[in-house]
Amino acid sequence: MNNKNPVSIYAISPPVIPTLPIDGSEQVFPIRRIYCVGRNYAAHAIEMGHDPDREFPFFFQKNPDNVLYGKDFPYPPLSKDVHFEVELFVTLKSGGSDIPVDEAMNHVFGYGVGVDFTRRDLQAQAKKQGRPWTSGKAFEASAPVSAIVPAEKVPSLAKKRIFLEKNGEVQQDSDLDHLIWTVPEVISELSKQFELAAGDIIFTGTPAGVNSVEVGDRLHCAVEGIAEISFSVV
Ligand code: MN
Fold first, then answer.
1. Does 6 reside within a domain?
2. Which of 42, 87, 134, 189 is an S-S bond match for 203, by CB 3.0 to 4.6 Å?
3. What pLDDT, in 10s, does the model give residues 39-78?
4. Structure pTM?
5. 143 with 117: CB under 8 angstroms?
6. Cα 168 to middle of ligand 1, angstroms
7. If you measure from the C-alpha of residue 3 to the centroid of ligand 1, how many angstroms do you get, rounded to a whole number?
8. Domain count across the chain
9. Distance from the CA of 124 to the center of ligand 1, in angstroms?
């Protein structure tokens, strides 16, 4: 064994690639990018004061290292109004540009459930000032997620309940059938704007019932029959 450090081309240590565990596998899923869909359930669009009509979906991003797995959620700084948003997420094993809807599912690696935590007060301020949502959405640990369930274990997304409980009380309760833009439609639309690739994660939007959390709250959320997570706000 050679104990000498090879000369590195990197001026600093390269960042570690964030990964997620895969249900039933020793391998892990390396994360390339995280995209999120805005307003993809009519009832949530209405509660946020928007028209529930089927406008084209819009997207924002979190950072790959914003995912949080198997840990409690640390209440973030600069906000007094941090909201949960339970969402189905999709992971890709391949990608491309201008993917047709009827080919989109061929690119799916697997699914999971996660929370798109939002500093709602910072997001509201950004909206008012016409600024980007980055400070409201892409903060540290803002995406607690389950392990990834491979697509072959999920024969269908039809009639799958998605819900979130806070301290044992149901706060969000809907069904994936209520997605305004379906998973293949989301992938197809997103691929018109960005070149998708293996390692990408897409949060598909949240149903109605978003609300704030406090330190000490216990959250449990699931897409029934696919994945669930539980954690505390600390
Ligand atoms: Mn969201």
1. no
2. 87
3. 999 888 888 888 877 788 899 999 999 999 999 999 999 9
4. 0.95
5. yes
6. 22
7. 47
8. 1
9. 14
